[in-house]
Amino acid sequence: MAEAHIPGIPLDRSELGDQRFLSATGISRLDVVDSTGSTNADLLRAVTVEPASWPDLSVLTAEYQTAARGRLERRWEAPPLSSVSVSIVLRPVNAEGRPLPTQSYSWLSLIAALALRETLLETAGIPAELKWPNDVLVRGRKIAGILAQIGPMADGTVPPVVLGTGLNVTLHEDELPVPTATSVFLEGPQTTDRTQLLKSYLSHFAVLYRSFCNADGDPTAGMAGGPSLHKRVEAVMVTLGRQVRAQLPGDHEIIGHASRLDEYGSLLVVDKDSREHVVTAGDVVHLRPWTAPEEPGAADAGTPKGTGQGGYA
């Protein structure tokens, strides 16, 4: 049963700043602000102006975002104190300090999605799945979104990544941006404590991220004592095995069977002529389930247009 909805409970800053938690996760800095336009925009600016002040695994979280945006400049806004809105600075290097190849960066948002799925399952008791390229779904409705943005390259160094995650926590039905969204509160959770959800997410993310870095960004390497990142993501990705329509820039589209992810985290779609197409997260405008028009259900069955926003879309 969901606990009684008590709006407006701030994050526990002392608990988030506890040195034992920061040391256990390897978080180098954690800032909490009451309000900002966008935590991602703030960190992109910060790593440009004062890069030394924002090392790897620096975290910025906000109680309220007024101008957050997701992929393709989509904008969204949630009521104050209703979401987990957090961005992380990533400067991926392996255990010897060698930078990861930038082509591995496409997996970082999938690591975040996987970490958030584990948080929802273990901390909130909610089953979740991933929707390629950057959404987390609960029972088919979007509860969270993730946005990774590459920062500037300074002095020939590898550019940092700013990874933003937005999770709908205490929103009611009438507060959701669209009908296809949901929130932790609406799914009958064990808890809606945003502090605990944020700590759990950061803990899960740090473990997966460090394991990925120590494997030199190889998604096929076993990680954290278990299956590879590639296998873990594919196992919980609802997109795979379905007929999909990928809408691309310039009114182009690809319709076919979403078969698997390649070594860069791109989606491979096999069309009716058995040709395999590579769809990258940076290029796709929309990806939706697709049913042939002559079949019951017509095109776009399963996910209405305007898929629900939950955090970084």
What keyword list fits this structure?
313 residues, alpha+beta, 7-stranded mixed β-sheet, 5-stranded antiparallel β-sheet, 26% strand, disordered N terminus, disordered C terminus
Report what the structure shows.
With 313 residues, this protein is α+β, with helices and mostly antiparallel strands. Helix content is 21%, strand content 26%. It has 6 helices and 16 strands. The strands form 4 sheets. A 7-stranded mixed beta sheet has the order 1-2-5-9-8-7-6. The chain has a 5-stranded antiparallel beta sheet with strand order 15-14-13-12-16, with no helix packed on it. Strand 12 and strand 13 form a beta hairpin. The longest helix has 21 residues. The protein is globular, with a radius of gyration of 19 Å. The two termini are 28 Å apart. The N terminus and C terminus are likely disordered.
Multimerization status: single chain
Sheet with the most strands, sense and barrel status: 7 strands, mixed
Q: Please bin the fraction of helical residues.
A: 10-25%
Report the uncertain regions. 1-5, 295-313
The tally of strands reads 16
Write the layout of secondary structure elements.
Blueprint: H1 13-16, H2 19-25, E1 29-33, H3 39-49, E2 58-62, E3 68-69, E4 75-76, E5 83-90, H4 108-124, E6 129-131, E7 135-138, E8 141-150, E9 161-168, H5 194-214, E10 222-223, E11 226-228, H6 229-235, E12 243-248, E13 252-261, E14 267-270, E15 276-279, E16 286-289
Helix pairs in contact: 4-5
